[in-house]
Each structure stands twice: as structure tokens, then as C-alpha cells.
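User: Hi! I'm working on a homework problem where we have to compare a predicted structure to a textbook description. Could you give me the structure for the chain below?
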Amino acid sequence: MSMNHVRPWRNISRRNSRQIMVGNVPVGGDAPISVQTMTNTDTSDAKATIEQVQRAAVAGADIVRVSTPDEASTRALREIVAESPVPIVADIHFHYKRAIEAAEAGAACLRINPGNIGDAKRVSEVVRAAKDHGCSIRIGVNAGSLERHLLEKYGEPCPEAMVESALEHVKLLQDNDFHEFKISAKASDVFLAAAAYQALAEATDAPIHLGITEAGGFVSGTVKSAIGLGNLLWSGIGDTIRVSLSADPVEEVKVGYEILKSLGLRHRGVTIISCPSCARQGFDVIKTVSALEERLAHVTTSMSLSIIGCVVNGPGEALMTDIGFTGGGKDAGMVYLAGKQSHKMSNERMIDHIVELVEAKAAEIEAAKDAAE
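Assistant: Happy to help. Predicted C-alpha cells:
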């Protein structure tokens, strides 16, 4: 639960779900909502895949999924798992033997789609492998690959069909005395995905993996994901998320964190509050913010920074941030620290100076945390 006693209108009451483990990452219950991404390399190229996994982890990914469509991929998975700083999920479609091989290779979780993994006997074999090797399982329902009998029953992909698909597969796992599972019910249609997830949240206490599948390119996919995931997270639904973009997986992680940060559900790195800029700006806001985002990407300490082009909203925004800079003077602006005016700084020196101030503040915050432990 995200509680704010001073501003109760910011409170989000998270759905009560049971907790499972994906490797060493808890999912569900009172655990932080984890951020996932998926590699887009050829998994059989272990070196390229490891490099992408490591970049995603540096960006903040808690869990990374890799596709394992063939034996070459599952052979490479052992090396990938050994070199990964975060738990690896093996994405399985069509061939249940790949799931067994992935479990043997050390995958922390197996993602299987009930619409194409096979019959109950094959599912039982996958469950046995998961139990033997300490894997959890994600039941991955997708509107684009629902079982034929459900499409015949409902006529088209719909929330009822997606939830029924998920619950049928839950029963298969539970019949095999397996309970370490989470569920997703993804669709590229935001309305369909949201309705399916809302119904799923009422039908089970299993942890829920949120995603809007095939969301699109960086801009369109970010918007669709922010609307779909943001709506669900705001209502308390969701234990782990993946933003699906036709873009670098690192961008998926960044967008995922920004969605969570905007709702106060996760805090990581510098949150920059900046104006869109206009003729009143005392410096080039757009270029400044772009430069600061790049130069402050290494800071993982949660803190806020306001960059406002003029004095209309600058002082007010600075009151609410750890560090602020407001334009308005001739080739210079005002630096705010903890909401109060501190000193003037030239536009020319501003970016370097702000980076120094942020790094110093981050070190101060981390030192205070260490002292409190």
C-alpha cells in the first residue's frame, strides 16, 4: 500500500496477492512492484544476450526475460543465467521440451502460454521440471493466441475468454500441486487488457504480471502502456510490469520506472520536473534537460530536481524539489536547495554545477541511510 497521511488523495491501496519468488526477487504480497524487460537478441548468441541483460540491469531491471525457441537457445541459457545479475525468465512457446531444458539450465521462471504449450500431460512434465529446479511459472494469456474452444465459445477475444483461459491453466498447475505461479492477461487493445486484468484480479489471489502487448514504437507504445498500466496500478492491480516497446529493452525499463515513479509506487534515480519551454525561458530548457537526463542516468538515489525556464512557476516548483534551477536573469538563473533560494549560477556553468549538486546530495542521502541501519 502506498500511504500518504499528509496528502491522502495520493494513496493507492494495492490488491492483496500471495507472494512467489522469481529467483531472489519476491513478486506479490507487500514486495515492491518489480520491473521487467525482454531481450531482443538471438538467445543462442550468449555474449550479445548477456551484454543486453547487463545493460537492462544497470538501467534498473529487476527481472529479464529471454526467448528460448530452440535447443541452441536453451543451451546458451546456462551461460546467460550464470552471467546475469538478475533472475532470468525463459519464454516458452509451442514446445514444452524447451521449458524442461530451460529449467535444467537454471531459469528462475518459465513463461508458458496456455494456448500453445500443449495438453495436460505436457504441462505436468513442465511442472515437474519446475519443481525439481526451483522455478516459478508465469501463465501468459494473450488475446492473440487464445485456445480454439474459447474462441468458438465467445466468438472473439474478450475479457471473459482470457480469464477463463487463465483459470483453466491455474487448475492444471494446482492439480499438479504447483502454486508458485503468476498470471498475465495481455492484449494490444488497452480496453481489452484492462478489463481482463480487472476481472482476473477478482478471480484469483495469484500475483499479476501487467503488460500491454505489442504496444508499438517508443512514443505510441509508451503512451498506450502509461494509460493501460497506469490505470491498473492506480487501482491497486499489478505486482510486476513489463512495458512492451519496439525499442531498446533499456528504454522499456526506463518507461516502466517512470510509470511507477509517477504513481509513487517505486522510487529510483532523479525525477526531473521541467517546463516545456516558451519565449519566456532564460536558457534552452529542452537541451538542458536532455543533457541532465544523460549525465544523471548513473544516479540511482531517489531525489527530485526542477528545471524551469522562467520565474512564473520556477520558485513554486523549486519549493517541492530537492534541487531546483530557475531561469530569468541575464545569462544566469537561481539555484534552489531544499526549496529555498541558495545562489545564482551562470547558464554556461549551470549543467556542470547541477550535476555536482545532485551527486553531492545523493551521497548525503546514502550516507544518512547507512548511518540509520
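For your comparison, note the following. The two ends are 23 Å apart (CA to CA). The longest helix spans residues 347-372. Good luck with the assignment!
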